[in-house]
Amino acid sequence: MYIINQTMKTPLHIQLYEELKKDIIENYKVGDKLPSIRKLGSIYNLSRTTVENAYSQLVVEGYIESYPRKGYLVEDINVSTFKPKINLDNKKEKKETWIYDFNPIGLSKNTFPIKVWKRLFNKYIDEKTDLGAYPNGQGEENLRIEIAKYINKARGVNCNAHQIIIGCGFTNSMELLAKLLDEKYDTLSIENPGYIMAANTFKSHKYEIKKVSIDKQGIKIDELEKQDSRLVYVTPSHQYPTGVTMPISNRYKLLEWAEKNDGLIIEDDCDSELNYVNRPIPSLQGLDKSGRVVYIGTFSKSLSASLRISYMVLPEHLLDLYHNHYAKSFSTVPLMVQIILEKFMKEGHWERHFRRIRTMNRKKHKLMKSLLIKNLGSSMKIEAEGAGLSILINPTVNINIEKLKKLAKKEKIKLYFTKDTCGGDWDTIRMGFVIFNEDEMKVAVEQFSTIWYKAME
Ligand SMILES: Cc1ncc(COP(=O)(O)O)c(C=O)c1O
Fold it and tell me: Family assignment (predicted)?
């Protein structure tokens, strides 16, 4: 007996369709005949059109087929007939909730240009968009052209669209690179402290990882020279995590090292355009004359971390190798996202958006700095500031860090420590500022200072 409720908001044909579908899945065999439209209508007091609509939906979805002189017969629907062997009651994953979250990598959801994005979607995604095809492995050419223009102008990167490979985030680009280079290199030198994901990706591809210290000039080139390595990962324009900028003299030395050793430099330039004090310094890739730099950038720090779009620029001499390895691969970034981003850039929205974000971040950075000074005074030292999405601090007094962490958890204040993403000994607390509006930031820093003083010994 089917339950059809004439007073429910759900249309009658949908109710009937749901009941029939359940019945077919649970009780019918292939070739079984369904009741005629007239019979079903009269049993449940439904109009002919209502029953016809329910049957047509089942036909469209392949559950039944209409045969002349036979009526509606059940089709082979083996995909839906599996009896689940696991309990499908979806238990929600436990998510910790925070009242104050000093997130140093995510962006505020309010800054994503959603109206423009939706407008571009409506304008450019339509029946002509080939959503049946796999997207170009290297990324859509038109998007690559826009990215090439942008990094050329904003970061001094010398490249053409054919050198760019679009990926779904830094790690994806690094994965690809690790596979590409594994016949030529077996060791990766990385900055210490440095971004743990860079090391982890290459480690998982069996590269030996060698750490090179950094000082106020960035990676220590004399130390690098002593290592038996020809491949190095650096963040020269805004060292992660210390914030150091590698001066031009050292950039040339690093390039010389690469030339002398038939080496390669991986330049991670993830947030270098977000400089609030100085003009952003041009990329290392832009100084390179002999194809010694692979450049990686991302849209995560100023547009959206959830879109998952990064780009990698390969030197010309690696392109054949790339095409040999990846000729049959498909892009990891959905076509729709690529098309909209291309139009977003081409129509000038990206430039406007970026200026707006940088101005907004600059103000938030200034506010965070003044709030930290006001609330924590000389009990803390600023270790890195002036760029990116966070200010890094350390205590100058005795703070019991374990106690601070416990208090933070109790008060639902989410803190971020450099050690978690860098390994090693160097540690700071990363005070992310872009996620807050001004009022939220004031309260958040006040609450943080309360637990800070409680953790003081
Ligand atoms: C130094 C560094 N490089 C790269 C990235 C990753 O960017 P993506 O969002 O493209 O994976 C991050 C993320 O925080 C980062 O800190």
Answer: In the C-terminal section; belongs to the class-I pyridoxal-phosphate-dependent aminotransferase family.
